[in-house]
Amino acid sequence: MGMSSRAAPRICVLKGGLSVEREVSLSSGHECAKALRVAGYEVVELDARGDVAQRLVEIAPDIVFNALHGRFGEDGCVQGILEWLRIPYTHSGVLASALAMDKARAKHAFAGAGLPVASGVILPKADVMTRHAMAPPYVVKPNNEGSSVGVYLVMDGANRPPQLGAEMPDMVMVEAFAPGRELTTTVMGDRALAVTDIVTDGWYDYDAKYRPGGSRHVVPADIPSQIEAACLDHALRAHQVLGCRGVSRADFRWDEARGADGLVLLEVNTQPGMTPTSLVPEQAAHCAISFVDLCRWMIEDASCDR
């Protein structure tokens, strides 16, 4: 891995960044940095701004722990900088990161591999606000943001199309609403860990994800073994189809009334949250992997060129 002669490898934790998910990333990065210090590494935390390449050259880390979320940190951009600088880094590489962040292209890859996805189209924002793009219920979301930022749910009986806010890009994804329970599965290398049932009072939005008490996580999910096996299988296959490495998290919807046919893969998150309330550390703990050991594993898995 090209370690220097320092006693302990120097890790730079990239956090913060420029996306709408900045605050969550600061929290993830802070928690991971604490765990890596416990694991015995020398840790430098860096709030990733426009001078990130210059700062990385100055810090000269042996490995970068990428705790960024959203655009620039999750879409292949910072991964390209790290490849250029030849610094091994955690999580997925340039192509897998870019592919996963582009919901339409990721969905195309999933469907090509026989994984179940909701039907969807990419349309101009103006068209979506003028007329119903498909029969309700449907969801409108940016094609390349994470964390349920800017998600509009158009329910049955909606008289008019959604009036999208200024935060939405010019082109948006319109997707058939997948009803049912919200399930999620972590992949760690070549192993799918568990299935969590995310129980909320309403839409699983940004607040529900990150506000303490915003949602309840039931792990392992109380679901039929057939559905559990399908989630584990689909999550690992989705990880492999996109070419992910390290840790990823696949999100599903499951309509109980339709049995096995009611399971839909929503998306794969290549930079899942690593805060105390996050789903990945919870699933790791369920598999007897401590938070410190999870972070250590991610450092040991770090690389360039793939």
In short:
The protein has helices at 22-38, 52-59, 77-85, 94-101, 103-112, 125-130, 206-210, 225-242, 279-286, 291-301, and strands at 10-15, 42-47, 63-66, 120-124, 138-142, 152-154, 171-176, 181-188, 191-199, 216-218, 247-254, 263-269. The protein is an alpha+beta fold and 306 residues long. Among the domains are: 10-90, Rossmann fold (3-Layer(aba) Sandwich), CATH 3.40.50; 120-176.
Keywords:
about 300 residues; alpha+beta; Rossmann fold; five-stranded antiparallel β-sheet; four-stranded antiparallel β-sheet; 10 helices; 12 strands; about 25% strand; globular
Task: Walk me through the structure.
By secondary structure, the chain is α+β, with helices and mostly antiparallel strands. Helix content is 33%, strand content 23%. It is built from ten helices and twelve strands. A five-stranded antiparallel beta sheet has the order 10-9-8-11-12. The chain starts with 9 loop residues before the first strand and ends in a 5-residue tail after the last helix. The mean pLDDT is 91.
CATH class type of the domain at 10-90: Alpha Beta
Q: What does the largest sheet look like? A: 5 strands, antiparallel
Mean pLDDT: 91
Q: Measured on Cα atoms, how large is the radius of gyration?
A: 19 Å
Query: How far is it from the N-terminal to the C-terminal residue, by CA?
Result: 13 Å
What is the fold's blueprint, element by element?
Layout: E1 10-15, H1 22-38, E2 42-47, H2 52-59, E3 63-66, H3 77-85, H4 94-101, H5 103-112, E4 120-124, H6 125-130, E5 138-142, E6 152-154, E7 171-176, E8 181-188, E9 191-199, H7 206-210, E10 216-218, H8 225-242, E11 247-254, E12 263-269, H9 279-286, H10 291-301
